[in-house]
Amino acid sequence: MVYRGAVDAVVVGGGLVGCLVARALVAAGLGVALIERDAELGSRASTAAAGMLSPQMEAAEGLLAESSARAETMLTFCLAGRDRYPSLVESLSRETGLEIEYRARGTLVVATEPTRAGVLATAAAAHAARGLAAEFVDHDAARRLEPSLAAGIEGGLLLPDDHQVDAVALVGAAARAVAAEPQVRLEVNCRVVGVDTAAGRVTGVRTERLDGATDYQAANLVVVAAGAWSGSVEGLPRRLDVLPVKGQMVAVDGRVAGLTHTVGGHGAYCVPRGDSRVLIGATVERAGFDVTVDETAIEGLVAAAAEYVPVLKHADRLRAWAGIRPGTPDALPIVGPDPDIGGLVYATGHYRNGILLAPITAEAVAALAIGLEPPVDLAPFAPDRCTDTLQGVGGG
Ligand SMILES: Cc1cc2nc3c(=O)[nH]c(=O)nc-3n(C[C@H](O)[C@H](O)[C@H](O)COP(=O)(O)OP(=O)(O)OC[C@H]3O[C@@H](n4cnc5c(N)ncnc54)[C@H](O)[C@@H]3O)c2cc1C
After folding, report:
1. Alpha-carbon span 393 to 396, nearest angstrom
2. Is 55 in the pocket of ligand 1 (CB under 6 A)?
3. pLDDT tens digit string along 89-136?
4. What pTM was estimated for this model as a whole?
5. How far apart are CA 112 and CA 115, in angstroms?
6. What is the pLDDT of residues 262-283, one digit of tens each?
7. Cα(377)–Cα(76) distance, rounded to whole angstroms?
8. Does a cis peptide bond (omega within 30 degrees of 0) precede residue 257?
9. How far is the CA of 225 from the centre of ligand 1 (A)?
């Protein structure tokens, strides 16, 4: 085993979360080893994503539709993530010279039947009362915004501040930015096989490269950002309940629809891109780490989208793919310090909102790393809220 010179911090996993965490740690003055199992950074969930930055849509009808303290906390975290986006995109583009499509045209959540329209109208009022931009629009107004909407549309919830970003371009720029950073030691094709601790603190990580060579990387801070695989990193003091949740999507030629907003509807959403593609997503499946695409699932997505944008039914299909979201039992991320092991921090479990939440997660982790108060309350995302402590694990 080769012992590498110590760095201040090791980041386990080079998805969008790991890349932005590494970048934020460097900005906080730390030297970082970013360790990624694959040949390229960001080739898993982060590049499979639709890139919606849509806390309000989630709050209106998704996982956060319930009114509870938990939903409110998550909405606050997600709004903080959304707020960071314009400056993140601007700084990554400037640093790397890469163009990142960031579309600020807003999101329209539509209803094809009256009950759902009522839910959206209630959500509009609740968001407006909270000071968020939201408006319920009737049938005519919805079709003025998006003329290709179905004649049977009852109305829609217009969310002007729920934007979207091209996740592939974003991840490419984040990867280039960290790779160019002198304070980052980047290791690809290298898997973290264990986190080591002594006397209640992390001491470093053991790694294994593709050719089987093993190394030891010493560090005082280890950030677990291994996405859906976070629970299988060995040596953690607790079992992390990060569950793989498969999502399939399809890109179609969207010229027939001419959408300008992200359009959310029952069973599918449509995300228009500047190159005239429309991304239709996404399934939510418990299928382990399987990433095969199945035609029935893709047909189902297109059929659901065609319920409210009928012309998409016959749009040319360009590509379909699948990715694995890092889910958790309560659908909240796991972000924050380990309560028992000093220097061990989690940045995982972002489920359907990892693109949205990556910048605020990175900012929070960097604040913890240098002893500052994180910009948001991380208590609801604590790693021990839904996991067991493993007895006798965590040493050597
Ligand atoms: C179809 C689909 C659509 C989505 N749409 C959206 C959306 O519109 N908006 C949104 O905000 N989110 C969306 N998401 C969710 C989002 O993609 C994820 O939450 C986010 O990408 C998670 O980022 P990550 O960096 O934690 O994980 P990943 O991108 O999966 O990165 C984890 C990395 O860790 C590496 N790794 C794993 N184990 C090890 C190890 N032991 N050692 C070293 N490296 C390791 C992996 O190789 C991987 O590169 C979507 C997801 C899917 C699948």
Report:
1. 9
2. no
3. 999 999 999 999 999 999 999 999 999 999 999 999 999 999 999 999
4. 0.96
5. 9
6. 999 999 999 999 999 999 999 9
7. 9
8. no
9. 9
What residues have CB less than 8 Å from 331, skipping those under 6 apart?
63, 74, 351
Q: Cα dist. 177→10, 166, 248 in Å?
A: 17, 17, 28
Taken in order of first residue, the domains within the chain and their CATH numbers are 1-102+164-241+329-396 (3.50.50.60)
pLDDT tens figures, 156-200 = 999 999 999 999 999 999 999 999 999 999 999 999 999 999 999
- For residue 392, pLDDT beyond 60: no
Q: Which atom of ligand 1 is nearest to the CA of 326?
A: 19
Q: How far is it, in rounded angstroms, from Cα 165 to Cα 143?
A: 24
Distant-in-sequence, close-in-space partners of 81: CB < 8 Å, separation ≥ 6: 53, 55, 353, 356, 357, 358, 359, 360, 361
Helices (H), the chain: 16-27, 45-48, 55-61, 69-96, 114-129, 139-145, 167-179, 295-306, 354-369
Q: How far apart are CA 142 and CA 152, in angstroms?
A: 11
The response to whether residue 359 sits with its C-beta less than 6 Å from ligand 1 reads no
Give the separation between CA 309 and CA 295, rounded to whole angstroms: 20
pLDDT-derived band at 3 (thresholds 50, 70, 90) equals low
Whether 395 shows a pLDDT value over 50: the answer reads no
Does the C-beta of 308 come closer than 6 Å to ligand 1? no
Q: Are 230 and 270 in contact (CB under 8 A)?
A: no
- Rg of the chain, C-alpha, whole Å: 21
Q: Are 394 and 240 in contact (CB under 8 A)?
A: no
